[in-house]
Specification:
70 residues; 3 helices
Length: 70
Amino acid sequence: MSFTKHFGSNNLSDLVAKDDAQMSLANALGTLTGVALLTGFHSPIFLTMLVSIACPIQLWMTLKLLDVMV
């Protein structure tokens, strides 16, 4: 929360609302992308490769986000 207080000095509620809106949009786009991939590609080999590539990328990005916030 201190990270968001730094950027929203006087209007923290507006900053939190924008953050929640961006998070909702990111979740919706991720869900739509996942459904599109599952609809278009049924090959277990392709899906396994996709997950084995996407999971480490997601973990690395989460760690980088936490490094920035600390």
